[in-house]
Task: structure prediction
Amino acid sequence: MSKFSNQLIIPLLALLVACVIPPDENTEEMVRLPTDAEVEQYNASVAPEERIVCRREIPVGTNIPRRLCRMVRDVEETSTFHRDQLRRVLR
Result:
């Protein structure tokens, strides 16, 4: 075989194998987000810092909004972290 055909066959083979491998159960497509009613029911039975909040966000690199659900404590921790990082940069 020529050098050109080897360079073409290997990427095509890799692409073919990638199409055959089933998706991991932890991939984003496999995760079902809770409905508003499920979130409301869950939030009624847990402490305030354990509650879930859902909102529509537009990820970087796309204009398609997506529904994201996170725990209140995670949102607060992320906000605190980013606030601290911003203060550190602005000093």
Notes: Residues 13 and 67 are 36 Å apart (CA to CA). The first helix runs from residue 3 to 20. The beta strands are 52-57, 66-71. The chain has a mean pLDDT of 79.
